[in-house]
């Protein structure tokens, strides 16, 4: 359930990334902002 809630809370910058590299970059920022480590 926790992973589903996190996935559903992803901001548009992550969801609409135009490449895998962009997705990783934006997802990294999102996770870092929330102090989530080891993803």
TrEMBL record:
Superkingdom classification of source: Eukaryota
Protein name: Uncharacterized protein
